[in-house]
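Lecture notes, unit on protein representations.

Consider one protein chain, 373 amino acids long.
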Amino acid sequence: MDVLATIVATLAIIVVLVLVHEVGHFVVAKLCGITVQEFGIGFPPRAASRIWGGTRYSLNWIPLGGFVKMLGEDGEGEAERMRQQGLSEAAVDRAMEGAFNRKPIWMRLAVLLAGVAMNFLLAVVLLGIAAAQPQPGRIAPVTVTEIQAGSPAEGILAAGDVITAADGRSFERAAELLSYIQAQAGSPVALSLQRDGEAVDVTVTPRVLTDEQRQAGMGAVGFGWDSEIRDFPPLADDPLAAAGFGLEQSWTTATQIPAALGRTVVGLIGLAPNTGDARGPIGIAQLTGEVLRQPLVVQLYFVALLSINLAVLNVMPFPPLDGGRIAVTLIEAARRRKLPAASEAFIYAAGFVFLIALVVLISIQDIQRPPGT
């Protein structure tokens, strides 16, 4: 049942995120007078469809999001087919009047950026709602659950120890206690413990870690821990503050994603020791299963993070993503003439192959990733 719930939840999240993205394209395309041939929920084969206002609205059997099909979005391919069928140039021009590729540059850019904007806006809203909710957090003291071999904790701490204070200071939140200990890297820290019902004082020296060591799962002291969860006050107490928090967090997260993606690509092609914490479809499904067991606030943060990732990835200059189409549009603007149909098709095909290869490599990493990491 857990597996089924995870699959359903993962598909539901994907559908919502992609549909929000496609609705952005759809609305702006309609406002710009572009001929939208089809707006689909899911991917073909079709289960049902209806034509209204010149657009086919379809419900499809493969529940992996949705799509917007615009006239002329593949360049001059459709116009070429019309010419091959014997239509005159005047007839082709009339048929392509509402084509995406024949609209002004600013209209095409607006349509392409609309999907990204919608995903970013969704993240802002979700994070704003999350900020207005009681914030679940783990409280101090913390209980040691395991010790990493070869770590500073080995021989000093033991599973079952309860850390109540550090350097004589007590903390309300577990994160504050652990952050304080980690911040003392290279210097001894006096820890107050409860061990088998008795008060014990020990001294441990947190180690200085490299980024590679952190990404490999090494801790400054080297122990696993657990503690009780308590609801803390909301981060925002009015709608304006919540919106501000959502906007700030969304922007901060978005600015960090390109560098993380770069590390992933470098790691996947073997130029770095690891690929960071990149997740493909399989990894996202695994995380979804874990998030389903968490409070609502955590679920809102999770979906918002996915929405931001979708927005940023789509604006990257990789065909056939929106960013790739934006790049092609800007190249055409600089050249003041359209790219040849064959060249444009090749660019999109090459980009598609690259993206599929990237997804496959990350998915292999997801399968090989040890449980719980």
